[in-house]
Design brief:
The protein is α/β, with parallel strands linked by helices and 393 residues long. Among the domains are: 2-133, P-loop containing nucleotide triphosphate hydrolases (Rossmann fold); 293-393, Trna Endonuclease, Chain: A, domain 1 (3-Layer(aba) Sandwich), CATH 3.40.1350. Helix content is 42%, strand content 21%. The chain contains 16 helices and 13 strands. The strands form 2 sheets. Strands 7-6-8-9-10-11-13-12 form an 8-stranded mixed beta sheet. Strands 2-3-4-1-5 form a 5-stranded parallel beta sheet, with helices on both faces. α10 packs across α12 (238-250) and α11 (221-232) packs across α12. The longest helix is centred in the middle third of the chain and has 24 residues, at 173-196.
């Protein structure tokens, strides 16, 4: 909201991106309500959701839609146009561009697929839009849904288990599983299989399950292909698996994280990792198996929090060791973060900090754990409780 308020009436298209049901539409509705409360006449606002049946008539008629919008507005005064899930409109790029060049129209759009910005829109409007990425609830936001926050450690365990999709917090507990199932099915069916015209849903789901099961681990299309072939007698080509992965990333169900060579000072094109947008989605796909991988789940939560804070993130390679996250700051500085469920044992602590000791610079180093103890510093390395870190201002 603060970002949108700061960008109000600026000569930029505001593009809200993120996975389905993460809250993009709600944020736009909140901003619309803010405008009305700030004195904007409701007749100067057009809000259209293109997953609403009432708006389907416009999906193949962008010109008619353009005049439908502009005819409703007094273009001599500031106008605000909100287009929710606009990628469903055929030639939506031309619609958005046409509205953008009209004087006094401030345009806001959402999309649940990276195709929105990788399509012609990204080329047509280069330098004329700003992307605002929306994620499910952070742990801090999760706490706002709870009535008793006296035991943050127990609530953190619940957060790892349920995830932070906003829609689950208005539902009775016995309805959450069905809600998550519907979210995933919509992502897979509408945003991936239908758009790509893929028919073998079983093969796609097995690839998706493998990616969920490999969160925080280095993987490649070849590794997935070889594993599926040996375990399930399932024969898929590397190219097919690569296409599946790219579609999962484009739908914001997963994030691809590249490796950064701390000696060569550059990104590597192999050995990538993947993290999911929400651990509750993983639990639906893999069931109780989720509880067996707490270290990587903690990594996932830290990764998403770094994205929320606006950072560029990569994996670090230092000699023969690995840094969980390298945070690239706008001023060129970096921050190094290691994540471990616990580092109480001296041998574990030394293993976790060894990669830090191979780095030959003076950037900040942080070890995040669930250990309940005051923050300490050892050889310039800060050991911080992850819950305290997540709740930092």
């Amino acid at each position: 909201m603060n970002t949108l308020i700061g960008l109000r009436d600026k000569n930029l298209i505001k593009v809200l991106t993120g996975v389905r049901r993460c809250g993009k539409s709600t944020v736009m509705q909140m901003f619309r309500d803010y405008l009305i409360a700030d004195g904007v006449n409701g007749t100067q606002i057009v809000f259209l959701n293109f997953e609403d049946v009432d708006n389907r008539k416009w999906l193949n008629d962008f010109e008619g839609l353009y005049y439908h919008i502009t005819d409703r507005l007094d273009l001599s005064k500031p106008c605000y146009v909100f287009l929710d899930e606009v990628q469903h409109v055929k030639e939506f790029e031309r619609l958005v561009d046409g509205l953008y060049v009209k004087p006094n129209i401030d345009v806001y759009i959402t999309g649940s697929n990276a195709y929105l910005l990788s399509s012609e829109l990204g080329t047509l409007l280069t330098g004329r839009y700003i992307s605002i990425h929306i994620l499910p609830f952070s742990f801090r936001e999760f706490l706002l849904t709870q009535t008793d926050i006296s035991r943050t450690d127990l609530l953190f365990s619940n957060y790892i288990d349920t995830g932070g999709m906003p829609g689950i917090f208005d539902l009775p507990e016995n309805s959450v599983k069905n809600y998550i199932r519907d979210v995933i099915q919509n992502i897979i069916q509408k945003d991936i299989l239908v758009r790509n015209k893929w028919r073998n849903e079983d093969h796609f789901n097995k690839t998706t399950a493998f990616l969920f099961d490999s969160i925080g681990s280095v993987i490649s299309p070849k590794k997935i292909t070889d594993t599926l072939k040996s375990n399930n007698q399932l024969s898929l080509s590397h190219n097919t698996v690569d296409n599946y992965i790219n579609a999962l990333v484009e739908s914001y169900l997963f994030y691809r994280v590249k490796r950064f060579d701390l000696r060569g000072k550059g990104l590597l094109i192999t050995q990538e990792k993947y993290y999911t947008v929400d651990l509750g989605l993983k639990k639906f796909f893999l069931g109780d198996k989720i509880s067996l991988d707490l270290g990587h789940h903690l990594e996932n939560i830290v990764f998403l929090e770094l994205l929320r804070r606006g950072h560029q993130v990569s994996i670090g390679k230092a000699g023969d060791t690995e840094i969980d996250f390298v945070v690239h700051k706008p001023n060129g500085d970096r921050e190094y973060i290691q994540v471990a469920w616990t580092a109480k044992e001296e041998s574990t602590f030394q293993r976790e900090i060894r990669p830090f000791e191979l780095i030959r610079d003076f950037n900040r180093r942080i070890l995040l754990t669930t250990d309940v103890e005051p923050a300490t510093t050892y050889k310039g390395i800060q050991k911080i409780n992850v819950i305290d870190w997540l709740l930092e201002e």
